[in-house]
Amino acid sequence: MKIAVRLEQVSKNYGAVQAVKEVSLVVNQGEFFTLLGASGCGKTTLLRLIGGFEIPNSGKVWIGDRDVSRLPAYRRNVHTVFQDYALFPHLSVFENIGFSLQVKRLTRDEIGTRVTDALKLVQLLEMRDRFPSQLSGGQRQRVAIARAIVDRPDVLLLDEPLSALDAKIRVELREELKQLQRQTGISFVYVTHDQEEALALSDRIAVLHNGELLQVGTPLAVYEHPVNLYVAEFIGRANFLAGVLVQVKGDQGQVNIDNQVVTGTLAAEIAPNSAVKVVIRPENINLTANTSDTAYAAQIVQSQYLGYATSYLVEMSGLEFHVLELRRRGSSPYQEGDRIFLSWEWQEALIFPDTSKS
Question: Class of 3-231 per CATH?
Answer without folding.
Answer: alpha beta
